[in-house]
User: Which sequence fits this backbone?
């Protein structure tokens, strides 16, 4: 039965990883920008959920909507006025720009929230569900369901909506999209806004399951990297597959080898994939 | 010609630090030399060849641990530092051969993952590295504070002089020409008969050697290393920013950028402790947006010419 329990833990963790990585993958795939602020947006979302819960008692899954709207705006403005200016330059410049912006956000977070780890404890606690000997805490189950719903929502937006089709068009062939009248800078800003909104929304859910601190951002960023490379860049199904795979590898790896090997395993897997199959499991385009 | 004059002035200026007899100033000068070695080394692969490597910290840590472990076994300082360089050359050549087929962000991420992987290995190989407890490196002899500070300053300074000479020779040689061909158009470079795999791997291996030797000197200098300290991701990022300050592609620019950065960082640290990283962040953002070609392009800006990233 321990096998089923690990499987369930891995899937719960994996859904959260998928949600973390979906927005990161969108930005990387469409804009060819690696957004080093992604981890910090996740942590900011988590602090937002914590703040709203402590001040007005709003449950994290409702804070998700607040975070999505607020951070879409923030992301849109950052892309529109800052990153769009270096989007045509070599990748080194956009990467360094997001690193500089992340330093500023990190400094601000340390100043405002201090460096301590904090966690969101629901009162009353939700307890856990038992299926035979397999136990799942209800708050984790809720986080998993919302993470999957959020990722599904992104998928539907990209598949069905007008702006979503424009984003995909820019990703597939930017020149052709421009010829057809797509406003590229505006689509970049919207895509970056969506990526930022996904990060912060995922953060509100992570507040339920992980302790939060400004420095936690780097661990989340690392997961986003690995998931993107595993699943394939810029595709939502790729992020889901990569996220679930990483969740399972980490939980089974931690069980078989010991928890200290989980990080080594995920980065080893990352390098292996980059060498053997850099386009990811589902990827077709995007590999230079 | 002017870059040789600038380099000469910088090296002589740094060498004057011990004359002041001020150990604080010597500490800063040693740090400046260390980062200058790393920035100039990064420029070989990141600037000249155009492959955005984020693996600098991997070689720094590798060198620190190689030389640190040898030192605990009683090996003399110069031998342990040379060994760090040799180990890094071999490891960098292997990693480079495997990873240099990737481009752009993929290469950046793969080299970043190498840093994480090596840090985790250093954390887990407790028997060899002391794991998270860190590694104490014995002093060579009891020299006294000033003599010891001078020893490590001149070790770092000598390493910088060596790095600068090698970088300038590479830039001027056939290798440097091949590398800039690869940066501009790798496919075309292959067409005219440049063995791009060989040259890229060589550039990556060379960029690892001096960083590892700097790591080796650093380990003996501070007497104590731990994985989070020598595999710090900032050790990867700072040299890139320094090269950006000096103007990517020029090794003398990278060296000047390193000195400017270390001086600015120290001033900011002393005056605005709570906001130091934020101010550095603002500087980086300003640099990328307004002076993407480094301080050297300032005169173009001032004359109102367009400087596009």
Assistant:
């Amino acid at each position: 039965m321990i096998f089923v329990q690990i499987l369930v833990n891995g899937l719960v963790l994996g859904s959260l990883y998928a949600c973390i990585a979906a927005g990161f993958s969108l930005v990387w795939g469409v804009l060819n920008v690696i957004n080093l602020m992604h981890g910090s947006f996740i942590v900011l979302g988590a602090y937002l959920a914590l703040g709203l819960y402590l001040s007005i008692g709003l449950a994290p899954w409702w804070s998700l909507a607040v975070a999505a709207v607020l951070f879409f705006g923030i992301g849109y403005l950052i892309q529109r006025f800052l990153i769009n200016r270096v989007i045509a330059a070599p990748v080194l410049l956009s990467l360094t720009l997001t690193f500089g912006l992340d330093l500023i956000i990190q400094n601000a977070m340390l100043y405002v929230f201090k460096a301590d780890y904090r966690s969101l404890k629901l009162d009353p606690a939700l307890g856990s569900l038992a299926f035979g000997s397999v136990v799942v805490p209800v708050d984790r189950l809720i986080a998993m369901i919302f993470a999957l719903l959020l990722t599904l929502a992104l998928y539907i937006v990209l598949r069905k909506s007008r702006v979503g089709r424009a984003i995909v068009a820019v990703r597939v062939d930017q020149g052709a999209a421009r010829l057809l009248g797509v406003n590229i800078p505006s689509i970049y800003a919207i895509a970056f806004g969506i990526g930022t909104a996904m990060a912060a929304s995922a953060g509100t859910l992570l507040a339920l399951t992980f302790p939060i601190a400004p420095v936690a951002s780097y661990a989340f960023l690392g997961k986003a990297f690995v998931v993107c490379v595993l699943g394939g860049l810029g595709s939502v199904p790729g992020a889901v597959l990569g996220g679930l795979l990483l969740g399972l590898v980490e939980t089974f790896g931690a069980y078989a080898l010991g928890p200290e090997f989980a990080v080594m395993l995920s980065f080893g897997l990352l390098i292996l994939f980059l060498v053997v199959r850099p386009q990811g499991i589902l990827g077709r385009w995007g590999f230079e | 010609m002017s870059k040789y004059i600038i380099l000469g002035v910088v090296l002589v200026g740094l060498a004057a630090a011990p004359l002041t007899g001020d150990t604080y100033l010597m500490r800063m000068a040693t740090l400046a030399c260390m980062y200058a070695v790393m920035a100039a080394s990064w420029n070989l692969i990141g600037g000249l060849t155009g492959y955005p490597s984020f693996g600098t910290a991997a070689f720094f840590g590798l060198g620190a641990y190689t030389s640190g472990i040898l030192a605990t076994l009683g090996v003399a300082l110069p031998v342990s530092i040379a060994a760090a360089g040799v180990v890094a050359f071999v490891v960098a050549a292997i990693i480079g051969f495997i990873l240099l087929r990737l481009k752009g962000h993929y290469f950046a991420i793969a080299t970043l993952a190498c840093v994480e992987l090596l840090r985790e290995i250093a954390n887990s190989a407790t028997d060899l590295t002391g794991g998270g407890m860190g590694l104490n490196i014995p002093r060579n002899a009891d020299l006294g504070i000033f003599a010891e500070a001078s020893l490590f300053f001149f070790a770092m300074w000598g390493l910088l002089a060596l790095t600068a000479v090698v970088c300038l020779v590479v830039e001027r040689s056939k290798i440097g020409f091949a590398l800039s061909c690869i940066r501009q158009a790798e496919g075309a470079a292959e067409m005219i008969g440049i063995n791009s795999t060989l040259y890229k791997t060589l550039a990556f291996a060379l960029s690892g050697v001096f960083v590892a030797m700097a790591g080796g000197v650093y380990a003996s200098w501070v007497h104590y290393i731990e994985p989070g300290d020598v595999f710090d991701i900032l050790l990867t990022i700072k040299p890139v920013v320094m090269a950006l300050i000096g103007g990517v592609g020029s090794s003398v620019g990278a060296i000047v950028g390193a000195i400017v950065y270390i001086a600015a960082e120290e001033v900011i640290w002393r005056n605005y402790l709570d906001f130091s990283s934020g101010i550095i962040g603002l500087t980086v953002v300003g640099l990328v947006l307004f002076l993407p070609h480094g301080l050297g392009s300032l005169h173009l800006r001032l004359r109102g010419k367009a400087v596009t990233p």
Notes: Residues 252 and 258 of chain A are 9 Å apart (CA to CA). Chain A touches chain B at residues 28, 32, 34, 82, 85-86, 88-93, 95-97, 99-104, 106-108, 111, 218, 222, 225, 229, 260-261, 263-264, 267-268, 270-271, 274-275, 278, 287-288 (CB under 8 Å). The first strand of chain A starts at residue 128 and ends at 131.
